[in-house]
């Protein structure tokens, strides 16, 4: 838990750097991180007439900072306070001539200790971080399969550093009522943008259980959603946060983990789509529809 909480703050710093330079894409998709073959990456961030990226490498335990002009810097991922990580990361950007200013305090957490003052979060267990990335790697793979079955508006599979979850969101195409907000240290307008369209979202969150949990929710939540029969049997609806949850251990210990997770993702999506009367025929499609024409 200590490593998770420190890493949460580190990902917020890196995510805010992307936010400072990337133009707005609907629902804040431009601020997220992505699962990579080594950890979590910003992907290419535009800067002047070039680009740069930052990547958490949970194999070598380094933060790579790379510029399109060939410059590179590294920040060690090791036990250190958030304040030190923040200072080293911002210094690396300055050395690469990418001056950056961010709102230097975390969002969606309470208390929100300014990064430069946070010496409370200072844990980093390399093995735990590596295992967390391995969880994300598998979740990302199966969420990608699930995403491929939808041809309507759908988000990438991406990592939101505010709530520290890997998410994929499908949209019906209809607008939604303004979200009431309420996330700690986060303006309500952020949630209004994030939830401006009717959606069914799912993903993986490192909270909600000993080893994290898969989740699914709908906004706005249609009548009867909480009581809709979803699978597998171990899945349950948590009323205090309006989500279906499936403990990670249930999936990991299953004979066929992919099938169990896909069953959860599909049945919870069906709960949202059926009860809210989505035009499912226009947004769902077989991802193998052209397979007979593809060469091996």
TrEMBL record:
What domain of life does the native source organism fall in? Bacteria
- Any Pfam family from its record, for instance, is DUF5996
Q: What is this protein called?
A: Ava_C0101 and related proteins
Organism of this sequence: Nonomuraea rubra
